[in-house]
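We both want to read C-alpha coordinates more fluently, so let's practise on a single case. Once you have written the record down, we can walk along the chain together.
***
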Amino acid sequence: MDNHSRRQFLRQTTALGLGSIVLPSFMSNPPSMRLNIAVIGVGGRGRASWSKVPRESIVAMCDVDDRMSAEAFKECPNAKKYKDFRVMFDEMAKDIDAVIVATPDHTHFAAAMAAMELGKHVFVEKPLTHNIWQSRTLKKAAKYYKVVSQMGNQGHTTHGIRQIKEWYDAGVLGQVKEVIRWSQGLQGDFKRNNYFGKPSSFPPAVEEIPSGFDWDLWQGPSAERPFSNYYAPRRWRGFLDYGSGMLGDWGCHTFDAPFWALDLGMPHSVEAELLNPIADHSFVSDESTVTWNFKVRGKKVPVTMKWIEGGKKPAVRPEWGIAELPENGMIMIGEKKTLITDGRPNTPKLLVPDEEWKEFLKNPPPQTIARIEEEKPVKEWLDAIKNNSLPGSNFDYASDLTEMIQVGVLAQRFGGKFEYDSKKMKAIGRPELDAYIKEPVRKGWSYGENLWK
Protein backbone atom coordinates (compact mmCIF):
# COMPACT_ATOMS: atom_id res chain seq x y z
CA MET A 1 0.00 0.00 0.00
CA ASP A 2 1.57 3.32 -1.04
CA ASN A 3 1.40 6.50 1.04
CA HIS A 4 -1.62 7.85 -0.83
CA SER A 5 -3.58 4.62 -0.31
CA ARG A 6 -2.60 4.47 3.36
CA ARG A 7 -3.76 8.03 4.02
CA GLN A 8 -6.97 7.37 2.10
CA PHE A 9 -7.65 4.31 4.27
CA LEU A 10 -7.11 6.31 7.47
CA ARG A 11 -9.44 9.06 6.24
CA GLN A 12 -12.11 6.52 5.29
CA THR A 13 -12.08 4.82 8.68
CA THR A 14 -12.36 8.17 10.44
CA ALA A 15 -15.21 9.24 8.16
CA LEU A 16 -17.20 6.16 9.17
CA GLY A 17 -17.47 7.53 12.70
CA LEU A 18 -15.20 7.24 15.71
CA GLY A 19 -15.84 4.08 17.65
CA SER A 20 -17.37 2.11 14.80
CA ILE A 21 -14.43 -0.02 13.67
CA VAL A 22 -11.93 -2.30 15.38
CA LEU A 23 -9.17 -3.54 13.15
CA PRO A 24 -8.23 -7.22 13.40
CA SER A 25 -4.94 -7.78 15.20
CA PHE A 26 -3.06 -8.93 12.11
CA MET A 27 -3.79 -5.55 10.52
CA SER A 28 -2.78 -3.52 13.56
CA ASN A 29 0.66 -2.47 12.34
CA PRO A 30 1.95 -3.85 9.02
CA PRO A 31 4.79 -1.70 7.64
CA SER A 32 2.56 -0.16 4.99
CA MET A 33 0.11 1.01 7.67
CA ARG A 34 2.58 2.72 9.97
CA LEU A 35 1.57 6.22 10.91
CA ASN A 36 3.72 9.13 9.78
CA ILE A 37 4.31 11.19 12.90
CA ALA A 38 5.65 14.72 13.35
CA VAL A 39 7.02 15.81 16.73
CA ILE A 40 6.95 19.43 17.89
CA GLY A 41 9.25 19.86 20.89
CA VAL A 42 11.62 16.89 20.88
CA GLY A 43 13.53 17.15 24.18
CA GLY A 44 12.27 16.58 27.73
CA ARG A 45 8.64 15.51 27.66
CA GLY A 46 8.85 15.35 23.88
CA ARG A 47 11.40 12.57 24.11
CA ALA A 48 9.25 10.77 26.67
CA SER A 49 6.49 10.71 24.03
CA TRP A 50 8.20 10.12 20.68
CA SER A 51 10.44 7.42 22.13
CA LYS A 52 7.24 5.38 22.65
CA VAL A 53 6.51 5.09 18.91
CA PRO A 54 9.27 2.79 17.61
CA ARG A 55 6.92 0.89 15.29
CA GLU A 56 5.61 4.03 13.61
CA SER A 57 7.46 6.39 11.27
CA ILE A 58 8.73 9.69 12.64
CA VAL A 59 8.94 11.76 9.47
CA ALA A 60 9.49 15.25 10.91
CA MET A 61 10.93 16.82 14.06
CA CYS A 62 10.60 20.44 15.07
CA ASP A 63 12.39 22.26 17.89
CA VAL A 64 13.53 25.85 18.35
CA ASP A 65 16.57 24.94 20.47
CA ASP A 66 19.55 23.10 19.02
CA ARG A 67 20.71 22.24 22.56
CA MET A 68 17.50 20.35 23.29
CA SER A 69 17.10 18.71 19.89
CA ALA A 70 20.64 17.59 18.98
CA GLU A 71 20.44 14.07 20.43
CA ALA A 72 16.92 13.47 19.15
CA PHE A 73 17.90 14.56 15.65
CA LYS A 74 20.79 12.08 15.74
CA GLU A 75 18.48 9.26 16.80
CA CYS A 76 16.01 10.00 13.99
CA PRO A 77 18.29 10.76 11.03
CA ASN A 78 15.58 10.19 8.41
CA ALA A 79 13.17 12.71 9.90
CA LYS A 80 13.16 16.17 8.31
CA LYS A 81 14.30 18.84 10.74
CA TYR A 82 12.56 22.17 11.41
CA LYS A 83 12.51 25.04 13.88
CA ASP A 84 9.12 26.51 12.91
CA PHE A 85 6.18 24.10 12.88
CA ARG A 86 4.30 26.44 10.54
CA VAL A 87 7.01 25.93 7.92
CA MET A 88 6.94 22.18 8.60
CA PHE A 89 3.21 22.01 7.89
CA ASP A 90 3.56 24.18 4.78
CA GLU A 91 6.13 21.78 3.35
CA MET A 92 5.04 18.39 4.70
CA ALA A 93 1.34 18.42 5.54
CA LYS A 94 0.53 15.75 2.95
CA ASP A 95 3.12 13.40 4.48
CA ILE A 96 1.97 13.65 8.11
CA ASP A 97 -0.81 11.62 9.77
CA ALA A 98 -0.41 12.54 13.43
CA VAL A 99 1.41 15.10 15.56
CA ILE A 100 2.91 15.02 19.05
CA VAL A 101 3.07 18.45 20.75
CA ALA A 102 5.42 18.70 23.73
CA THR A 103 6.37 22.37 23.80
CA PRO A 104 5.99 24.73 26.80
CA ASP A 105 2.38 25.39 27.80
CA HIS A 106 2.00 28.71 25.98
CA THR A 107 2.55 27.15 22.53
CA HIS A 108 0.46 23.98 22.96
CA PHE A 109 -2.64 25.57 21.49
CA ALA A 110 -1.11 27.10 18.36
CA ALA A 111 0.74 23.89 17.45
CA ALA A 112 -2.27 21.65 18.10
CA MET A 113 -4.68 23.89 16.19
CA ALA A 114 -2.32 24.18 13.22
CA ALA A 115 -2.21 20.38 13.09
CA MET A 116 -5.95 19.83 13.50
CA GLU A 117 -6.83 22.41 10.84
CA LEU A 118 -4.93 20.11 8.48
CA GLY A 119 -6.84 17.06 9.71
CA LYS A 120 -3.96 15.60 11.73
CA HIS A 121 -4.51 13.55 14.86
CA VAL A 122 -2.91 15.18 17.90
CA PHE A 123 -1.28 14.20 21.18
CA VAL A 124 -0.61 17.20 23.46
CA GLU A 125 1.29 17.27 26.73
CA LYS A 126 -0.49 18.43 29.87
CA PRO A 127 -1.81 20.92 30.71
CA LEU A 128 -3.64 20.88 27.40
CA THR A 129 -3.69 24.66 27.04
CA HIS A 130 -2.52 27.88 28.67
CA ASN A 131 -5.91 29.51 29.13
CA ILE A 132 -9.63 28.81 29.32
CA TRP A 133 -10.61 29.96 25.82
CA GLN A 134 -7.95 27.72 24.28
CA SER A 135 -9.33 24.69 26.12
CA ARG A 136 -12.84 25.35 24.83
CA THR A 137 -11.55 25.89 21.32
CA LEU A 138 -9.54 22.65 21.20
CA LYS A 139 -12.65 20.79 22.35
CA LYS A 140 -14.61 22.31 19.47
CA ALA A 141 -11.77 21.67 17.02
CA ALA A 142 -11.36 17.96 17.79
CA LYS A 143 -15.02 17.39 16.92
CA TYR A 144 -15.10 19.78 13.98
CA TYR A 145 -12.01 18.33 12.28
CA LYS A 146 -12.87 14.74 13.34
CA VAL A 147 -9.42 13.89 14.65
CA VAL A 148 -8.29 11.49 17.38
CA SER A 149 -6.97 13.54 20.28
CA GLN A 150 -5.21 12.81 23.56
CA MET A 151 -3.72 14.79 26.42
CA GLY A 152 -0.61 13.30 27.96
CA ASN A 153 -1.74 12.85 31.58
CA GLN A 154 -0.49 9.31 31.86
CA GLY A 155 -2.33 8.66 35.10
CA HIS A 156 -5.57 8.40 33.15
CA THR A 157 -4.35 5.09 31.72
CA THR A 158 -3.64 3.49 35.10
CA HIS A 159 -5.53 0.78 36.95
CA GLY A 160 -5.48 3.07 39.98
CA ILE A 161 -7.70 5.77 38.52
CA ARG A 162 -10.15 3.09 37.41
CA GLN A 163 -10.20 1.64 40.92
CA ILE A 164 -10.97 5.07 42.37
CA LYS A 165 -13.98 5.52 40.10
CA GLU A 166 -15.18 1.94 40.65
CA TRP A 167 -14.89 2.26 44.43
CA TYR A 168 -16.77 5.54 44.42
CA ASP A 169 -19.47 4.25 42.08
CA ALA A 170 -19.88 1.16 44.30
CA GLY A 171 -20.54 3.40 47.31
CA VAL A 172 -17.35 2.52 49.21
CA LEU A 173 -16.61 6.16 50.02
CA GLY A 174 -20.21 7.33 50.28
CA GLN A 175 -20.90 10.90 49.21
CA VAL A 176 -17.66 12.85 48.79
CA LYS A 177 -17.82 16.47 49.93
CA GLU A 178 -14.11 17.35 50.13
CA VAL A 179 -11.02 16.79 48.01
CA ILE A 180 -7.65 18.10 49.23
CA ARG A 181 -4.26 18.06 47.52
CA TRP A 182 -1.11 19.28 49.27
CA SER A 183 2.54 19.46 48.21
CA GLN A 184 5.80 21.25 48.90
CA GLY A 185 5.27 23.18 45.69
CA LEU A 186 8.16 25.11 44.18
CA GLN A 187 10.51 24.51 47.09
CA GLY A 188 10.13 20.77 46.73
CA ASP A 189 10.72 20.99 43.01
CA PHE A 190 13.89 23.05 43.49
CA LYS A 191 15.28 20.12 45.47
CA ARG A 192 14.23 17.47 42.95
CA ASN A 193 13.91 18.61 39.34
CA ASN A 194 14.73 22.31 39.00
CA TYR A 195 11.76 22.68 36.64
CA PHE A 196 11.07 26.00 38.33
CA GLY A 197 13.50 28.86 38.90
CA LYS A 198 12.69 32.03 40.83
CA PRO A 199 14.87 35.05 39.99
CA SER A 200 15.90 37.56 42.63
CA SER A 201 14.02 40.34 40.83
CA PHE A 202 11.25 40.69 38.27
CA PRO A 203 11.59 40.75 35.37
CA PRO A 204 14.78 38.68 35.47
CA ALA A 205 18.03 40.17 34.22
CA VAL A 206 18.47 40.27 30.43
CA GLU A 207 20.97 37.74 29.07
CA GLU A 208 22.48 36.92 25.72
CA ILE A 209 20.46 34.55 23.54
CA PRO A 210 22.33 31.23 23.25
CA SER A 211 23.67 30.18 19.86
CA GLY A 212 21.28 27.90 17.98
CA PHE A 213 18.25 29.00 19.99
CA ASP A 214 15.45 30.89 18.24
CA TRP A 215 14.08 32.99 21.08
CA ASP A 216 11.46 34.67 18.90
CA LEU A 217 9.95 31.31 17.87
CA TRP A 218 10.11 30.04 21.45
CA GLN A 219 7.97 33.00 22.58
CA GLY A 220 5.44 32.10 19.91
CA PRO A 221 2.11 33.83 20.57
CA SER A 222 3.24 35.53 23.80
CA ALA A 223 4.29 39.16 24.09
CA GLU A 224 7.87 39.79 23.01
CA ARG A 225 10.42 40.34 25.78
CA PRO A 226 14.19 40.12 26.30
CA PHE A 227 15.74 36.69 26.83
CA SER A 228 16.68 35.23 30.21
CA ASN A 229 17.89 31.76 31.11
CA TYR A 230 15.17 31.80 33.75
CA TYR A 231 12.65 31.44 30.92
CA ALA A 232 14.25 28.79 28.75
CA PRO A 233 14.97 26.04 28.16
CA ARG A 234 13.79 24.46 31.42
CA ARG A 235 12.53 26.82 34.13
CA TRP A 236 9.61 28.54 32.39
CA ARG A 237 6.81 26.82 34.32
CA GLY A 238 6.66 29.35 37.16
CA PHE A 239 6.38 32.33 34.79
CA LEU A 240 2.66 32.56 34.19
CA ASP A 241 2.92 34.04 30.69
CA TYR A 242 4.55 30.76 29.62
CA GLY A 243 3.63 28.10 32.17
CA SER A 244 0.83 27.40 34.61
CA GLY A 245 2.82 26.91 37.80
CA MET A 246 2.87 23.74 39.83
CA LEU A 247 -0.93 23.68 39.72
CA GLY A 248 -0.96 23.49 35.92
CA ASP A 249 1.97 21.09 35.87
CA TRP A 250 0.47 18.63 38.39
CA GLY A 251 -3.22 19.46 38.59
CA CYS A 252 -4.06 17.41 35.50
CA HIS A 253 -2.48 14.41 37.25
CA THR A 254 -3.71 14.92 40.79
CA PHE A 255 -7.28 16.03 40.14
CA ASP A 256 -7.90 13.68 37.22
CA ALA A 257 -9.39 11.00 39.49
CA PRO A 258 -11.84 13.16 41.48
CA PHE A 259 -12.79 15.13 38.36
CA TRP A 260 -13.71 11.90 36.57
CA ALA A 261 -15.16 9.91 39.45
CA LEU A 262 -17.22 12.74 40.97
CA ASP A 263 -18.27 14.22 37.62
CA LEU A 264 -17.21 17.63 38.91
CA GLY A 265 -17.57 19.72 35.77
CA MET A 266 -16.93 23.45 36.22
CA PRO A 267 -16.79 25.23 39.60
CA HIS A 268 -19.27 27.97 40.39
CA SER A 269 -16.63 29.85 42.37
CA VAL A 270 -12.92 29.78 43.13
CA GLU A 271 -10.72 31.52 45.68
CA ALA A 272 -6.97 31.78 46.20
CA GLU A 273 -5.03 32.81 49.30
CA LEU A 274 -1.46 33.82 48.47
CA LEU A 275 1.67 34.28 50.57
CA ASN A 276 4.26 36.70 49.16
CA PRO A 277 2.56 37.26 45.78
CA ILE A 278 4.63 38.81 42.98
CA ALA A 279 3.47 42.39 42.46
CA ASP A 280 3.15 42.15 38.67
CA HIS A 281 1.42 38.72 38.82
CA SER A 282 4.05 37.27 36.51
CA PHE A 283 5.21 34.41 38.75
CA VAL A 284 3.47 31.98 41.08
CA SER A 285 3.40 32.68 44.80
CA ASP A 286 5.72 30.70 47.11
CA GLU A 287 2.73 29.43 49.06
CA SER A 288 -0.92 29.37 48.12
CA THR A 289 -4.22 27.68 48.79
CA VAL A 290 -6.73 27.47 45.94
CA THR A 291 -10.32 26.43 46.67
CA TRP A 292 -12.88 25.41 44.03
CA ASN A 293 -16.57 25.08 44.89
CA PHE A 294 -18.78 22.73 42.84
CA LYS A 295 -22.55 22.59 42.92
CA VAL A 296 -24.87 19.56 43.11
CA ARG A 297 -24.53 17.26 40.10
CA GLY A 298 -27.58 15.02 39.90
CA LYS A 299 -27.55 13.00 43.14
CA LYS A 300 -23.96 14.00 43.94
CA VAL A 301 -23.56 16.54 46.73
CA PRO A 302 -21.62 19.84 46.47
CA VAL A 303 -17.84 19.47 46.63
CA THR A 304 -15.11 21.72 47.99
CA MET A 305 -11.71 21.00 46.45
CA LYS A 306 -8.43 22.48 47.71
CA TRP A 307 -4.90 22.80 46.35
CA ILE A 308 -2.42 23.55 49.16
CA GLU A 309 1.04 24.46 47.87
CA GLY A 310 4.14 25.37 49.84
CA GLY A 311 4.58 22.74 52.53
CA LYS A 312 1.42 22.98 54.63
CA LYS A 313 -0.69 19.85 55.19
CA PRO A 314 -4.34 19.34 56.06
CA ALA A 315 -5.05 18.54 59.69
CA VAL A 316 -5.21 14.80 60.36
CA ARG A 317 -8.70 13.67 61.39
CA PRO A 318 -9.15 11.00 64.08
CA GLU A 319 -11.24 8.71 61.87
CA TRP A 320 -8.35 8.34 59.41
CA GLY A 321 -6.37 6.27 61.91
CA ILE A 322 -2.95 7.72 60.96
CA ALA A 323 -0.43 9.84 62.86
CA GLU A 324 0.54 12.11 59.98
CA LEU A 325 0.15 12.61 56.24
CA PRO A 326 3.02 12.21 53.75
CA GLU A 327 4.73 15.35 52.42
CA ASN A 328 2.46 15.36 49.37
CA GLY A 329 -0.73 13.61 48.38
CA MET A 330 -4.44 13.83 47.61
CA ILE A 331 -7.40 12.72 49.68
CA MET A 332 -11.06 12.29 48.78
CA ILE A 333 -13.05 12.53 52.01
CA GLY A 334 -16.28 10.58 51.91
CA GLU A 335 -19.13 10.07 54.38
CA LYS A 336 -18.04 6.47 54.86
CA LYS A 337 -14.35 6.27 53.96
CA THR A 338 -11.46 8.50 52.96
CA LEU A 339 -9.20 7.59 50.03
CA ILE A 340 -5.57 8.71 49.64
CA THR A 341 -3.14 8.74 46.70
CA ASP A 342 0.16 10.43 45.99
CA GLY A 343 0.49 13.10 43.28
CA ARG A 344 -0.85 10.72 40.64
CA PRO A 345 -3.85 8.39 40.94
CA ASN A 346 -1.74 5.27 40.44
CA THR A 347 -1.96 3.61 43.88
CA PRO A 348 -5.11 4.52 45.81
CA LYS A 349 -5.57 3.32 49.38
CA LEU A 350 -8.39 3.62 51.88
CA LEU A 351 -7.49 5.25 55.19
CA VAL A 352 -8.63 2.34 57.35
CA PRO A 353 -6.86 -0.01 59.79
CA ASP A 354 -4.44 -2.44 58.13
CA GLU A 355 -6.61 -5.50 58.74
CA GLU A 356 -9.66 -3.82 57.25
CA TRP A 357 -7.59 -2.77 54.22
CA LYS A 358 -6.34 -6.32 53.70
CA GLU A 359 -9.90 -7.65 53.85
CA PHE A 360 -11.07 -5.00 51.40
CA LEU A 361 -8.38 -6.00 48.89
CA LYS A 362 -9.53 -9.63 49.10
CA ASN A 363 -12.99 -8.68 47.90
CA PRO A 364 -12.95 -5.25 46.23
CA PRO A 365 -15.83 -3.91 44.12
CA PRO A 366 -16.05 -5.57 40.70
CA GLN A 367 -14.11 -4.13 37.79
CA THR A 368 -16.53 -2.23 35.58
CA ILE A 369 -14.00 -0.23 33.54
CA ALA A 370 -11.78 -1.91 30.96
CA ARG A 371 -8.06 -1.93 31.80
CA ILE A 372 -5.43 -0.82 29.30
CA GLU A 373 -1.64 -0.77 29.36
CA GLU A 374 -0.65 1.47 32.24
CA GLU A 375 1.42 4.63 31.81
CA LYS A 376 1.22 4.38 28.01
CA PRO A 377 -0.97 7.27 26.83
CA VAL A 378 0.92 7.55 23.53
CA LYS A 379 0.23 3.90 22.69
CA GLU A 380 -3.42 4.32 23.68
CA TRP A 381 -3.64 7.27 21.28
CA LEU A 382 -1.94 5.42 18.41
CA ASP A 383 -4.16 2.38 18.93
CA ALA A 384 -7.23 4.63 18.91
CA ILE A 385 -6.19 6.16 15.58
CA LYS A 386 -5.88 2.72 14.03
CA ASN A 387 -8.99 1.31 15.71
CA ASN A 388 -11.04 4.38 14.88
CA SER A 389 -11.93 5.03 18.52
CA LEU A 390 -11.08 7.63 21.17
CA PRO A 391 -8.57 7.34 24.04
CA GLY A 392 -9.61 8.12 27.58
CA SER A 393 -8.09 11.59 27.86
CA ASN A 394 -9.39 12.78 24.49
CA PHE A 395 -10.07 16.50 24.20
CA ASP A 396 -13.77 16.16 25.00
CA TYR A 397 -12.64 15.11 28.48
CA ALA A 398 -9.20 16.69 28.74
CA SER A 399 -10.32 20.19 27.78
CA ASP A 400 -12.86 20.22 30.62
CA LEU A 401 -10.27 18.98 33.13
CA THR A 402 -7.79 21.60 31.88
CA GLU A 403 -10.37 24.39 32.00
CA MET A 404 -11.15 23.58 35.61
CA ILE A 405 -7.43 23.68 36.41
CA GLN A 406 -6.93 26.94 34.51
CA VAL A 407 -9.77 28.59 36.45
CA GLY A 408 -7.70 27.77 39.56
CA VAL A 409 -4.47 29.04 37.97
CA LEU A 410 -6.25 32.31 37.19
CA ALA A 411 -7.24 32.68 40.84
CA GLN A 412 -3.72 31.71 41.93
CA ARG A 413 -2.26 34.40 39.68
CA PHE A 414 -4.33 37.27 41.10
CA GLY A 415 -5.61 36.07 44.45
CA GLY A 416 -9.03 36.68 45.91
CA LYS A 417 -12.36 35.13 45.02
CA PHE A 418 -14.62 35.23 41.99
CA GLU A 419 -17.76 33.55 40.72
CA TYR A 420 -17.16 31.65 37.49
CA ASP A 421 -19.77 31.77 34.73
CA SER A 422 -18.74 28.73 32.69
CA LYS A 423 -21.29 29.36 29.93
CA LYS A 424 -19.83 32.78 29.17
CA MET A 425 -16.27 31.98 30.33
CA LYS A 426 -16.34 34.98 32.65
CA ALA A 427 -14.97 35.77 36.12
CA ILE A 428 -17.96 37.65 37.52
CA GLY A 429 -17.02 41.03 38.93
CA ARG A 430 -13.35 40.68 37.92
CA PRO A 431 -13.09 42.26 34.44
CA GLU A 432 -9.32 42.58 34.84
CA LEU A 433 -9.11 38.80 34.38
CA ASP A 434 -10.70 38.80 30.92
CA ALA A 435 -7.35 39.30 29.20
CA TYR A 436 -6.11 36.05 30.78
CA ILE A 437 -9.21 33.97 30.01
CA LYS A 438 -8.46 34.63 26.34
CA GLU A 439 -4.93 35.94 26.02
CA PRO A 440 -3.90 38.28 23.20
CA VAL A 441 -1.51 36.77 20.64
CA ARG A 442 1.18 38.17 18.42
CA LYS A 443 0.63 38.55 14.71
CA GLY A 444 1.07 35.27 12.85
CA TRP A 445 0.02 33.11 15.81
CA SER A 446 -3.76 33.36 15.77
CA TYR A 447 -5.71 30.11 15.44
CA GLY A 448 -9.21 28.84 16.10
CA GLU A 449 -11.20 32.05 15.72
CA ASN A 450 -13.21 30.55 12.84
CA LEU A 451 -14.76 27.99 15.19
CA TRP A 452 -16.54 30.74 17.13
CA LYS A 453 -18.15 32.48 14.14
